[in-house]
Specification:
- By secondary structure, this protein is of the alpha/beta class.
- It is 40% helix and 21% strand.
- The longest helix has 20 residues.
- 31% of the residues are buried.
- The structure holds calcium ion.
- Calcium ion binds next to loops.
Length: 236
Amino acid sequence: MSKPVILIVEDDSLISKFMSRAITEAGYKSIVAETASAARMLFLSEMPNVVLLDLGLPDDDGLNLIPDMKKYRKEASIIVVSARERENEKVKALDLGADDYVTKPFGIFELLARIRTALRHSEKAAADPDGNDSGIFTHKGLTLDTVRHIVTLNGEPVHMTIREFKILELLFRHKGKVLTYAWMMEQIWGSYIPADNQILRVNVTNIRRKLKENIEDPIFIKTELGIGYRMPDDIE
Ligand code: CA
């Protein structure tokens, strides 16, 4: 089997060298693009499984690469690597189709964990493009049966409202991935999107209470501050 290919789009050569070395040592093939135009070319010629995308590039905004990459090969996972002060851009990137993000400065173990998650998602997407499943999801004692509309925690039924159920289903279907407030609200409320995310947060608070979630160390729903929610992957 050929090695997974990771495309690093980063104009700071110190950072890209550091990433490239760790990625190679982890057994992947790493390719570096220092400009947006090089990234576009390498994306087409090298068919990377994962793209690590810096947004501040010399010739273009990294955000502009996301829709094109996703249109061309949506099974390629895009992880945005962004600076802390560019918080708004992270949300924009995720709404444009990026799969995940890491914030600079990051640890190499965090980055490799995100790459592993991304690779698993892209394998799943390639093997099963329609997302066919049994309709039953489980995560650490929590089971969601989307056919019979039943939620159980350690075998005990838990009553959820229709909206709470939908929120859990979204988190389960995109386990490991951060979901933005705007995206979740569009999925749940459709064109009747509430003006702010207060109602979503209230619903999540109710779900957490019903699941006896420990807010200090949640195992079902993690808050990504200012961005949205994530159900942690099993490897986390
Ligand atoms: Ca940069």
